[in-house]
Amino acid sequence: MENEPILSVRDLATSFFTRRGEVQAVRGVSFEVRPGEMLGLVGESGSGKSITCMSVLRLLKAGGKIKAGSAHFEGNDLLALDEETLANLRGNRIGVIFQDPMTSLNPTLTVGEQVIETILRHRQVSRDAARARAIELFELVRIPSAAARLKSYPHEFSGGMRQRVMIAIALACDPKLLIADEPTTALDVTIQRQILALLKDLQQRLGMSVILITHDLGVIAEVTDRVLVLYGGLVMETAPVRELFARPAHPYTVGLLDAVPDLRDDTHRRLTPIPGSPPDMLKPPPGCPFAPRCPHAMRKCVDERPPLFGTLHQARCWLHHAEAPKVDGIHEVAA
Ligand code: SF4
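Above: inputs. Below: predicted complex with iron/sulfur cluster.
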């Protein structure tokens, strides 16, 4: 069906086993990505947003273990596939872009070689055809003098141009899903804007779905269609982007929005931390993880983890229980 989700993640739980104990980074996250949409994953650092996507791709760092859940993509559960099939899907049907292109690109190879290698790894085409495709990709991501720039090394490019190369590599095999993990964080504001505009344009022109991971609500407001707010390894709120900004239904989201002085301000500054600290994921609280920082916390919040209330617009907060008090600034969730 046309509107079937392209990716469906259910009850994902991921932990890191360290000398200090089990860090419960993701604790039962579920979400869907629909065809052609850009989904934003937002939260402070340690909220679980990147670990959620790295779990889906099975690219966890040492000590990481997926404990439960499923991630269905084009009929396959990515969490159950053998390594070879999964490696073929990554970089082919699923493209990935990371924050720092300098650490992802090989400094000893020309950028052209790196794009051509990716194409040859996944497609049965001649070297000439791969080179022609590389030029096409550089033109697609608007690298000027595409054919000539294939011969450049990564250090000969600016940060923004290197990120364009990474996007070209991620798009090399026409992925259906692109996962972009903080793709503009290392760039200055003007270049950030250009890269975001490019991603949005490519998403629309190529009909791709995109998951954009960011700590920046300005980025979310600018390009995403729907948002997932994460905190303490859980989804706290999810809604279409305009609805989330106009009618936030979770005290954590309200705190995030209050921490950004003006979303039309073009500085895209980092989120000012909400007073207090995120929970210690070695010993996550049994109730709402936001309770120690929440101005509306009740006894029940400390004792019992709230479920997600609502359907189209969801919030994990006891304030949406039928018997809870009404609180100014916390909007009702849409059924
Ligand atoms: Fe605050 Fe309670 Fe809602 Fe958590 S469940 S956000 S502590 S009101």
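The first strand starts at residue 7 and ends at 18.
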